[in-house]
Amino acid sequence: MFDIGLSKMALIGVVALVVIGPEKLPKVARTVGTLLGKAQRYVNDVKAEVNRSMELDELRKMKDNVESAARDVEQSVQTSARDFEKDWNETTGSITGSTSFSSSSSESNWDGDVSSSSYSSVTPAYNHPRKNWRVKRGAVPQWYKSRSGVRTKAQSGAARVARFRPKKPI
Question: What keyword terms does UniProt attach to this protein (predicted)?
């Protein structure tokens, strides 16, 4: 920041010692140090705020670019889907108009509709994959737990007291 060498610092110290005096010099030096520290923190805070605002502007620009690219992709997908649907309708319209299919209850129609009786007979019932959900399957083997003294069964406080209560002699 400033080009101050050792000789200039010594000269400033001697002048300060003469002007301020030896009794007040340590207190003034502490005050000057505190003020310089506050000034440096303030400058650093201002720099950080400027950097944050610049990054925020960059992020806003990037967000706008990504949103415009997403809109362009969405529009191109929609136009290609419309073109495909138009071609598909033209193609399927010419096929269904030229040929006729007999549809029975076990066959599916040309449009992809399947009769409900044939569909329900083919579809299996859903079974949940974890039918024994109460059984815990831990990664630590049971023999290791028993050897290291890990409790495997939960016990209430009253049951624990009753279990370890000394027996009364009869």
Answer: Cell inner membrane, Cell membrane, Membrane, Protein transport, Translocation, Transmembrane, Transmembrane helix, Transport
